[in-house]
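A reminder from the course coordinator: this example appears on the midterm review sheet, so study it carefully.

Given structure:
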């Protein structure tokens, strides 16, 4: 059995909450952080059938992709949705968590699953999450403590550059300080100007991990007062909405449509373009993707695979000779369910929660 706040923390490790788009209501929707959880159901939406299945199967946690409460509310009318759905889960002691754009933006999230399915290489976000930059932490450390502090920062998530880990830069110099009368310096004498050999340790950090990295660094640093700086960088980030990359070899639009429709169990996929046309550079954006058509074209994509694109935007794409494959909003996001089941299963095994976990799909319900 797990406590809800522990599950939220674990999901934040897998799909960092800080990667959610501003004003997107990710995280706890309904419930208490102190609730005990023994059985979870994963679904795309909080709908009446999903709630009824949760009740019938004894679930006390519902993890969905789309938020149950999407907008700021000043009142809650329980006579109709979403109020009626909120009332139903509260009456049955069901906690609700939403992993929406946090799961969309994260490495290994929904868009990456499509990119992996297609075997795209050189993958990058269509819309990088500029709201979550890479920052550089610079800290001054005595030489004998450098490895320990560096390791602590790396354990907290610092020093990752692409496929490389524990990346840092170190340079030696001299620090000066005068300890006050009530100070307890690591070295040097109180009331005198002291010179100390120090190492300037620099490590890159995702902004959503900054607090954790600084806490880890301060916890291992031997100084009473630690001198450190944080700099924002303009480095490209690997997280964001959508993905774009290159197929291993050219494929026809019809072939791509057929494969993804089968994978997503899409009953009525729509193709804008000639099925026999070959393409190589492909963008993928599960869900609604109107605002991603032009950015994908500017990045050189020949095809955008999406959940849904409206009529007028589809006409514009056709006029421009830009291909679209629309799988259906729900169909393009149903891969969230097995992805979340696997994520919760891994966390349960890691933390010995012994959770029961089920996945709800319009086609079937799978349990474990």
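Designed residues:
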């Amino acid at each position: 059995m797990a406590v809800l706040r522990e599950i939220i923390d674990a999901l934040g490790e897998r799909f960092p909450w800080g990667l959610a788009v501003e004003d997107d209501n990710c995280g706890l929707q309904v419930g208490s952080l102190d609730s005990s959880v023994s059985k979870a159901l994963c679904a795309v939406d909080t709908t009446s059938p999903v709630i009824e299945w949760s009740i019938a199967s004894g679930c006390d946690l519902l993890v969905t992709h789309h938020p149950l409460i999407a907008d700021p509310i000043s009142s809650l009318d329980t006579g109709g949705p979403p109020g009626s759905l909120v009332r139903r889960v509260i009456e049955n002691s069901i906690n609700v968590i939403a992993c929406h754009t946090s799961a969309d933006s994260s490495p290994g999230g929904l868009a990456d699953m499509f990119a992996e399915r297609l075997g795209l290489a050189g993958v990058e976000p269509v819309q990088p999450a500029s709201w979550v930059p890479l920052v550089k932490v610079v800290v001054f450390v005595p030489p004998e403590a450098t490895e320990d502090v560096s390791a602590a920062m790396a354990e907290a998530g610092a020093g990752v550059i692409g496929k490389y880990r524990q990346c840092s830069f170190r340079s030696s110099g001299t620090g000066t300080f005068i300890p006050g009368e009530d100070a307890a310096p690591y070295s040097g004498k109180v009331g005198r100007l002291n010179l100390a050999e120090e190492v300037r340790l620099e490590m890159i950090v995702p902004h959503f991990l900054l607090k954790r990295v600084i806490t880890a660094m301060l916890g291992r640093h031997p100084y009473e007062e630690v001198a450190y700086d944080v700099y924002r960088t303009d480095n490209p980030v690997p997280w964001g909405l959508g993905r774009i990359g290159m197929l291993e070899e050219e494929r026809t639009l019809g072939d791509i449509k057929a494969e993804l429709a089968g994978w997503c169990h899409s009953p009525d996929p729509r193709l804008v373009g000639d099925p026999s046309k070959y393409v190589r550079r492909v963008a993928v954006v599960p869900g609604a993707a109107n605002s991603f058509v032009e950015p994908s074209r500017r990045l050189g994509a020949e095809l955008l695979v999406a959940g849904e694109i409206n009529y007028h935007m589809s006409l514009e794409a056709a006029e421009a000779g830009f291909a679209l494959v629309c799988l259906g909003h729900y169909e393009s996001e149903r891969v969230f369910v097995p992805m979340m089941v696997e994520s919760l299963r891994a966390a349960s095994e890691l933390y010995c929660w012994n959770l029961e976990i089920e996945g709800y799909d319009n086609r079937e319900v799978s349990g474990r």
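Residues 184 and 224 are 7 Å apart (CA to CA). The chain has twelve helices and 20 strands.
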